[in-house]
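Hi all, a correction to my earlier message: I attached the wrong file for Chromosomal replication initiator protein DnaA. Here's the right sequence:
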Amino acid sequence: MSSTQGSIETQEAIEHFAEALHQRIGADRYRLWFTHGVQFDLEVGDSPDDGEPTVFVIIRTSGPFAAQRMGNSFATELRAAAMIACGERARYRIDVEEAEQPTPKKRTRAAKVAAEKKATTKQKSTRGRAAASRSTTKTARAAGRSSSGRSSSGRRGSANSLASLLAQSNAAGNGASSNGKGGRKRSRGRVEHDPVAAAELPGEDDEHEEDYYDEDEFESDEQPVRAKSRGGAKKSAQPSAALPPLPDSQPTGGRTLDSFITGPCNEFAFSAAMMAVATPSVATPLFLHGPTGTGKSHLLAALANEFRTRRRMRRVVLLTAEQFTNDFVVSVGSTGLPAFRKRYRDVDALLIDDVHFLAAKTATLREALYTVETLASAGKPLVFSANLPPSDIRGLTGEVAGRMSSGLVCPLAALDQQTRFQLLQRMVATRCVLGCDNALLEEVSELIGGDARAAGGIANLIGMLQRMFRREPTIDEIRRYGGDLLRSTQVAPTLRSIEKAVCETFGLEGDGLRSKAQTRRVSEPRTLAMYLARQHTGSAFTEIAKHFGRRSHSNAISAISKVENWLASGKPIGAGDGAMSAQDAIARVESRLRVG
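and the right structure:
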């Protein structure tokens, strides 16, 4: 088994492990058990189950009692922290280390003879003192029998008990002190009185009682040796809990504010993130929304990293809404809600990605609302992200949507062409073996959509083509081998998708735009849907009018002029609480179309 101690990756993994363990067991228990005389390390070896390479997190402690208690009390937490820091195949092991002990000096045969003579003289002297002691004891007993029987019996019983205790104490001390090779020995009396810990203690080895002599060597250099306990602590470190590990803060994966590429599409959200780092308690909660691939998760990970490093926050929790929901469900059936609430309300910062996953989950939304209220009242930074703004997420209660909108709501649009070009430049520089002409990258950036993940796929494609052709690929070769990827990034809206987006924006039924109703609540959204269908699809006026209630093509033609007048005058569309300006309505519908 090889050790990885000393590398930067090892130190970062150890820090992630310590932080994850600190968050799971709490500050008090972590300070009590894992800060005094405990060291963390990593080793890479083969798993005993399948023989595959596995990373072991080593917890080194100074005694078997501490090791046994750690293994029994924190088995689940240690295993979960190891998996978070080093991957799902990671394991942990507890090693017991004793204090460094000097090896005995090497003695010559002459020194051995002198030691034996000294031991013989000491034995004779001890026998003489024992004989004198026995005679004195007999005299004392004879004198004691002349006194009253009851009082003498009581004193004799006390003396015998005291002598018995002293003898037992000396015997226990001699047995503990003999467990070593030389120098100063350690006593394990406290561990032996624990019936659980005593069963895990390693057995004594007779070879430790032997003296080491060398007839040819006369050096007396002392070299420290480090002894490890055998078997006991390792056996007690096996996980005993059957519950699954609870979710914890996700690693940031190198996503920082410096590596975030800004442009007109995300400049406002990036400025809000910088403000959240400078003054965490001002713009909280911070809500980021936009279609997939616009950098929401990148900003959340970057903010978590800044909170930890720049603001020195110890408990920064970054997770997805799915992990939050799963943790809530597991806590209801096992540890209970008090432990769940303590885990998420005693934090320095909370960041939740994909909040739209919480929609229509009544119990989870209620706990999320109370958690947000508690942290916001304490001035703790809160950051959320979703594909839509809080007010547009159907199934999100009004209280939760209002609380998440009370800080700052920042949109992220699909990446514009210039931002895609800069992103491609950076990805090609880090992923490709050869350079790439900027003219080619600019042409490719015009073909792909606004999804940053698609840009990563194109960069990988260019790198693969470079390895295959041993040169820079042409635009035709990129189209030939990456045509599916280029087409998949451009999702064209359809009449049905536009109808669905308009209905969701104005809160109408699924087929409300096809009805014969002429009320303002229905007719004006229908007119807007016809306008957007003409703008985003290649459908003819007749096809558009037929789709929206089998109307004549003149209705679709007049819809264009009506919406243009609404945009110029700022007239609200719809009725009641769902009314909004034409410009705002178009922006919301197009945002839903990008989300899909």
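Sorry for the mix-up. DSSP finds 24 helices and 13 strands in the chain.
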